[in-house]
Amino acid sequence: MMPQVIPPQRAYIIIDLKSFYASVECVDRGLDPMKALLAVADAERSKGTICLAITPAMKALGIKNRCRIYEIPKHLDYIVAPPRMKRYIDISADIYGIYLSYVAKEDIHVYSIDESFLDVTNYLGLYGLSAHDLALRIMNDIREKLGLRATCGIGTNLYLAKVALDILAKHSPDFIAELTEDSFKQRLWTHRPLTDFWRIGPGTARRLSSMGIINQCDIAHFPEKLMYKQFGVLAEYMIDHAWGRESCTMQDIKNYRTRTKSLSCGQVLMRDYSFEEALIIVKEMADELSLDMVAAHVVSSNVSLFVGYSKDAYPSTGASANLPVTTNSFRILMDTFAKLYSRSTMRGIPIRRVCISANSVLDECYEQYSFFVDPVIMEKDRRITQSVNQIKARYGKNAILKGMDLYEAGNTIERNEFIGGHKAGATLY
Questions:
Q1: Confidence of residue 276 (pLDDT cuts 50, 70, 90)
Q2: Which pLDDT score, from 0 to 100, does residue 187 have?
Q3: pTM here?
Q4: Which residue from 199, 196, 190, 195 is spatially nearest to 241, judged by alpha carbons?
Q5: What is the pLDDT of residue 258?
Q6: In this model, does residue 263 exceed pLDDT 70?
Q7: pLDDT bracket for residue 370 (50, 70, 90)
Q8: Strand order in the sheet with 12-17
């Protein structure tokens, strides 16, 4: 009988940049990110705009990270820095470059613009360092080269690393925390609230509370049959996590491919829009979606529309529709979305949010034709859209516009200057 081969215990770290956007703004101004009072927000929009980030010094005053400008005490002397998304992306790329100087790209998973997982299992022997000391070296490298303070979670699996970061690292003197399955049970089994743990939101926490479950220990010892009855397949993840287990590895993440894909775009409007004004927004977004689909060489046969209203008394409305053909034609997409909007959106109620999507997109080789749509027109639309994409790529997104973009209610021209819905901000304010 062959002896059982026990796989080596893995070592994962996840590094997060403290108050990333705010810290970048402080460093660029020659300020200490840990001491300066600064909020990143586009004050030109309104006093109700949400702060994308605030410095740790402001958090220490009891100000919430995702607060609105009017919620910051008026007597406070602080800097309001307009967001500069291009700058943050460039700095994030610099940080990724630092990671690459320590581990291969196959062992890095960029979780967000300011968080990345690193599988350092095979590098500890190479550097002759513990996971803690290697993490500290990388964090110090980031601070010396970019002036940014980082925090780090270390775990024997990806989940434990994330929990160590989210709950424990900020309370550690060197901003590093480590967890194993055993130490997880010792330190966090009775931790509250449950919403501090990854993947447990307020709704899930309320459902668990109604079952008498208030911490991870309760989940671990609750009858599994009842957990599966309440949460279905999600119960498997919740039970595993309650015991500090996680089967997903870095290789699994790298090998993962979604079965179906979709493309979408959405926006929160800066004022109340009437039914007629929001129709212009829908048409602009349909045109944007067509440009993205042609650039990605994909087509779709089904689309969805979501509309949110400014009055909480009115629930959001959503609807979907099949396209007459599988296509990425701006003409067909715009016509379908306009009809979908007209039949599903409430009239007379101010509109604040719009989102559209092309569902289950396929490679454009699967484009289909029908007797009711002239294929010559569809091919002409594609060539036009390809030309528009080429012009925009070379001369800027506002180099070519449609007449509807010039309407007062239109906002394509302004949004073309944004990255991720916020100002690219080429200059320092």
A1: very high
A2: 97
A3: 0.73
A4: 199
A5: 66
A6: yes
A7: low
A8: 108-112, 115-119, 12-17, 150-155, 176-179
Distance of alpha carbon 236 from the chain centroid: 25
- What pLDDT, in 10s, does the model give residues 93-117? 999 999 999 999 999 999 999 999 9
- Quote the CA–CA distance of 94 and 145 in Å, as a whole number: 9
For the chain, how many residues are written?
429
Residue 5: predicted pLDDT: 43
Structure tokens at 225: 């049959």
142 in Cβ contact with 29 (< 8 Å): no
Compute the distance between CA of residue 174 and CA of residue 8 in angstroms, rounded to an integer: 27
> For residue 79, is pLDDT > 90?
yes
Dihedral sign from CA coordinates of 150, 156, 162, 168: negative
Q: Which domains does the chain have, with CATH numbers?
A: 6-179 (3.30.70.270), 189-254 (1.10.150.20), 263-423 (3.30.1490.100)
134 touches 12 (CB < 8 A): no
Long-range contacts of 131-137 (CB under 8 A, 24+ apart): 131/11, 131/13, 131/178, 132/176, 132/178, 134/13, 134/102, 135/13, 135/15, 135/176, 136/174, 136/176, 137/102
Minimal CA–CA distance to 16: which of 100, 86, 99, 131?
99
Residue 269 in tokens: 């409007």
